[in-house]
Amino acid sequence: MPLSGLNKASVRPRGGVARVGLIPASKYAGSAPPATPAVWAFREDKARYSEETTGGQPIAKMVRHTLEMEFAANPATRAAVDELRAAAASEGVVALVTMASGRVVVAGWSRRFGTRYPLRLVAESVSSGEAPADCPTVRVTLESTDADPASSL
Questions:
Q1: Cα–Cα dist 128/98, whole Å
Q2: What are phi and psi of 12, to 5 degrees?
Q3: Is the Cα torsion angle 48, 17, 60, 123 positive or negative in sign?
Q4: Are 151 and 65 in contact (CB under 8 A)?
Q5: How far separated are the first and last CA of the chain, in Å rounded?
Q6: Among 53-57, 96-100, 122-126, whose mean pLDDT is lowest?
Q7: How far is residue 44's CA from residue 35's CA, in Å, rounded to a whole number?
Q8: What mean pLDDT comes out for the span 31-55?
Q9: What are φ and ψ of residue 141, in 5° steps?
């Protein structure tokens, strides 16, 4: 049986993340974003959001939400990552991720579970770079596992 829709002309790609706003899970109401989420200034083209779905019928479906961001390493970044680490450990965070296409998704919150499964900091790495002209960087990875894909705003 052929799959329909696979031979349609493709549109110009618009991948990537344009903006990320993080909100402590306890402050996200679910119906609308707060007026001022903390916007994270990651390095250009150095953020990525992905969802991986596993399982299905008859096994319960699980969706892993992963948000990765890379920043220039400096004292301000260190302080912000320290705050993020504390918030992610205590209550978790909800991310408003604006894609380059303009689509906005909410990760770390679902209609079914609310903020029961927020994003948590699962990895943090620091790199000096390889060449003298390289920018030292800090990379953080936030992740959550839920039963639903991210919601669109």
A1: 29
A2: -60, 130
A3: positive
A4: no
A5: 35
A6: 53-57
A7: 24
A8: 84
A9: -125, 125
- What percentage of residues in the chain have a pLDDT greater than 90? 50
Query: Does the pLDDT at position 40 exceed 60?
Result: yes
> Strand order of the sheet with strand 47-54?
47-54, 62-72, 137-146, 120-127
Rounded to 5 degrees, φ, ψ at 26 are -70, -15
Tokens of 37: 């989420």
| Cα-based angle 91, 116, 64 (whole degrees, multiple of 5) | 100
User: pTM (2 decimals)?
Assistant: 0.84
Tokens 């990525």, residue located: 48
Length of the chain, in residues: 153
For 61-118, the pLDDT digits (tens) are: 899 999 999 999 999 888 999 999 999 899 999 999 999 989 999 999 988 888 899 9
Amino acid symbol at 66: T
How far apart are the C-alpha atoms of 25 and 42, rounded to whole Å?
Answer: 21
Cα R_g (the chain), whole angstroms: 17
- Core vs surface per residue 39-66: b (16+ CB within 10 A) or e: ebebeeeebbbeeeeeeeeeeeeebebb
